[in-house]
Amino acid sequence: EMCIRDRAAAAALAGQVKRSAVKSKTVTDAGIELTLEVALSSEATSFVNALNSIEGVESASLVSYNGEYTA
Fold it and tell me: Strand locations in 1-71, DSSP E?
């Protein structure tokens, strides 16, 4: 079952991305770290601001990934 912050994050993404998938979730006494993979439906990135405005969220980042890692 999704917690309140998970539902708020899903709502922030709804209609803003083509798809999203949870890549990792770490839960500790200090908090929760959630990593999502998203496919953007446009160049709009305002959903990152919406994620960051969720109560209890300390930061939100958007990182571009083209399918290749470089060293």
Answer: 17-28, 31-40
What contacts 24+ positions apart, CB below 8 Å, involve 13-18? Answer: 13/38, 13/47, 13/51, 16/41, 16/44, 16/46, 16/47, 16/50, 17/41, 17/47
- DSSP annotation of 67 reads S
Instruction: Spell out the per-residue pLDDT of the chain, length 71, in tens.
Output: 678 888 888 888 888 889 888 899 999 998 889 888 888 888 888 989 999 999 889 999 998 877 776 66
CB within 8 A of 14, min separation 6: which ones? none
- How far apart are the two ends of the chain, measured CA to CA in Å? 38
Query: Structure tokens of 48?
Result: 């990152």
Global pTM exceeds 0.85 = no
